[in-house]
Design a protein that fits this description.
Blueprint: E1 4-5, E2 11-12, E3 14-18, H1 47-61, E4 65-69, H2 79-87, E5 92-97, H3 102-112, E6 116-120, H4 126-133, H5 138-151, E7 156-162, H6 171-181, E8 184-189, H7 207-217, E9 220-222, E10 231-235, E11 241-245, E12 258-261, E13 266-268, E14 277-278, H8 279-284, H9 289-301, H10 321-324
Parallel strand pairs: 3-4, 3-12, 4-5, 5-6, 6-7, 7-8, 8-11
Antiparallel strand pairs: 1-2, 9-10, 10-11, 12-13, 13-14
Helix pairs in contact: 1-2, 2-3, 3-5
Bound molecules: S-adenosylmethionine and iron/sulfur cluster.
Iron/sulfur cluster is lined by residues 23, 25-27, 30-31, 70-72, 98, 120, 321-322.
């Protein structure tokens, strides 16, 4: 077994699988309020197709971590069936969700073998939550977080996308929320993957500022970096950790070990890639594992050195975040 390595020597071990592009929310920074064109149902990979690609990646290239995402993964029917198939591969299995309907499925997902959960929540204030997600579901999301903890997911992390002038006044509130609930909050810099192209560098809240604001109230110290994207900090009083995913201001492309499969079966070598590699059509045309492996290896060897958001050469991907899987 040889790992999936690109021309810069980066080894890939972490697979993100979007199981749908549909969602029960319309977050401002991700989807347009209306006019979203959903992928045709017959174009979505079946659970068998997803499991076949995942198995190939795990068995041939030692991929050891799989995260389910979307769109909103919980809107895909019978999700525990897929979780059971992937769990049998013996990988670290996790999911990112908006948690609005998590209470209904948390138990079944946990029992099927899902281990870890990241829950997205960008405001603790009801009016702002509605404005950001275009849904009145804050109470359901908070209840979903409680359900995740009750069922025994460990750890539960909260993802907060920060946008200047929109929710950057809630940094300390979120830090307090994480400490009180015993969950790790991770602030994510706003990335140019929004459907309405509202992104601009002035809307990004940089890591340094997030750290300073938290440290003023709850002193924190840095935790040594791993290949994970979050820059981590621990609270000086032992009340857990907080993290920042600084994709824009302190990019971590050099240590990135992620590959992605979209809901319609396109393989992507980077969140910001402008090329899709069509595994679905190859699969449906009867490709052998060796033929699929050739596509995967070719795609990874084409990976760029970095995303280049900070350069004039940056090209915005045509897909928004919900069509890639964050
Ligand atoms: N629907 C699920 C959710 O929201 O958790 C999973 C899919 S969502 C696309 C995955 C993650 O991407 C979420 O944490 C979301 O906040 C993040 N995201 C979406 N658009 C983003 C953007 N433009 N910049 C940064 N993060 C973004
Ligand atoms: Fe849906 Fe997640 Fe995108 Fe929000 S961030 S619109 S919950 S896919």
């Amino acid at each position: 077994m040889a790992p999936l390595t690109d021309t810069f020597g980066r080894v890939h071990r972490d697979l993100r699988i979007a199981v749908t592009d549909r969602c029960n929310f319309r977050c401002q920074y991700c989807m347009p309020v209306e006019g979203m064109k959903w992928m045709p149902r017959e174009g979505l990979l079946t659970f068998e197709e997803i499991a076949r690609i995942a198995r190939l990646l795990v068995q041939r290239y030692d991929i050891d971590s799989i995260r389910l995402t979307g769109g909103e993964p919980t809107v895909r029917a019978h999700l525990p069936t897929l979780v059971r198939k992937l769990s049998a591969l013996g990988v670290d299995l996790s999911m990112t969700t908006n948690a609005a309907t998590l209470r209904l499925v948390a138990h079944d997902l946990h029992e099927a073998g899902l281990q870890r959960l990241n829950i997205s929540l960008d405001s603790l204030r009801q009016d702002r939550f509605i404005e950001l997600t275009r849904r009145d579901d804050l109470d359901r999301v908070l209840d979903g977080i409680d359900a995740a903890l009750e069922v025994g997911f460990e750890p539960v992390k909260i993802n907060v996308v920060l946008m200047r002038g929109i929710n950057d006044d809630e940094i300390v509130d979120f830090a307090r929320f994480g400490r009180d609930k015993g969950v790790t909050v991770r602030f994510i810099e706003f990335m140019p993957l929004d459907a309405d192209e509202q992104w601009g560098p002035e809307r990004v809240v940089p890591l340094a500022e997030v750290v300073e604001r938290i440290n003023d109230v709850f002193p924190i110290e840095a935790v040594p970096r791993t290949s994970a994207p979050a820059t981590r900090y621990r609270y000086g009083d032992g009340a857990g950790e907080v993290g920042v995913i600084a994709t824009v201001t302190e990019k971590f492309c050099d240590s990135c070990d992620r590959i992605r499969l979209t809901a319609d079966g396109q393989f992507r070598n980077c969140l910001f890639a402008v090329t899709d590699y069509n595994l679905r059509d190859a699969l449906r045309a009867g490709a052998t594992d060796d033929e699929l492996a050739e596509i995967l290896e070719g795609a990874v060897s084409d990976k760029w050195a970095g995303h280049g958001i900070d350069t004039v050469h940056f090209i915005r991907p045509k897909r928004n975040m919900s069509q890639i899987g964050g």
